[in-house]
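Worked example 3 (structure in, sequence out).
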């Protein structure tokens, strides 16, 4: 398993009410698979993906990365680990508008100081971004293009795991299908692992396996 979550509990306090979002979630993700987490808005998909991406700590339970327990308390070590092993694609692209397309893709490489310009260019071409866009500021791009740049950025450090939180929910249907086709092809050819959240069955159909999150409980497609 590349990543496992065991008995994960997570709740959020707002005022005096405590909302239990994840109630004993268990998940084992096999290497080189593409896994979908389906659920309606508010079901806890982002909460779960933030924990799997080591961005947030569960209240209870443990996360294992290649069988080793993740220590959430050492923030600095965790940040370095995350940068080397995990790539992220977010719902609202999270590109830096003032930077160029190429600079955005290179951003995760600047943290470890190994600039991989040639690889960044190659990835951009593979996600269908033409060379004349490389030096344009990213705010000039369409939503679909921005998300494809975000996929290139997520891949630039050759991560073992990609966490994609509703990457298609702000782009139109055609662009969503294009993005998923590209992501699936890249996942297979680069032999990486993807965990993607979505509320769409059509998006989940690109994946090897689908889980459903509802009322804090994660169920396998065979169990519903
Ligand atoms: N940081 C937070 N503080 C308080 N409540 C939160 C926080 N993050 C998420 N929640 C709540 O947890 C529930 C699940 O949210 P989320 O994981 O974002 O669901 P989804 O991604 O499936 O839409 C929602 O009720 C949301 O309001
Ligand atoms: Mg969400």
């Amino acid at each position: 398993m590349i990543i496992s979550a065991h008995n994960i509990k997570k709740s959020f306090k707002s005022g005096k009410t405590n909302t239990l979002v994840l109630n004993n979630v268990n998940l084992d993700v096999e290497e080189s698979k593409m896994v979908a987490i389906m659920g309606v808005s508010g079901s806890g998909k982002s909460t779960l993906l933030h924990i799997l991406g080591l961005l947030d700590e569960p209240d209870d339970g443990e996360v294992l990365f290649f069988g080793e327990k993740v220590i959430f308390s050492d923030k600095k070590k965790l940040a370095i680990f995350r940068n080397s092993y995990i790539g992220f694609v977010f719902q609202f692209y999270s590109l830096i508008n003032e930077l160029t397309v190429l600079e955005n893709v290179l951003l995760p490489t600047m943290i470890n100081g190994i600039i991989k310009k040639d690889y960044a260019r190659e990835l951009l071409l593979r996600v269908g971004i033409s060379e004349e866009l490389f030096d344009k500021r990213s705010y000039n791009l369409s939503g679909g293009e921005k998300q494809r740049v975000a996929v290139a950025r997520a891949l630039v450090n050759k991560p073992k795991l990609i966490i994609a939180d509703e990457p298609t929910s702000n782009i139109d249907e055609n662009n969503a299908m294009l993005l998923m086709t590209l992501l699936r092809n890249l996942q297979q050819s680069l032999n990486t692992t993807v965990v993607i959240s979505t509320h769409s069955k059509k998006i989940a159909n690109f994946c090897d396996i689908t889980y459903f999150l509802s009322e804090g409980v994660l169920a396998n497609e065979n169990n519903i």
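Notes: DSSP finds seven helices and ten strands in the chain. The pocket of magnesium ion (ligand 2) is lined by residues 45-46, 165-166 (CB under 6 Å).
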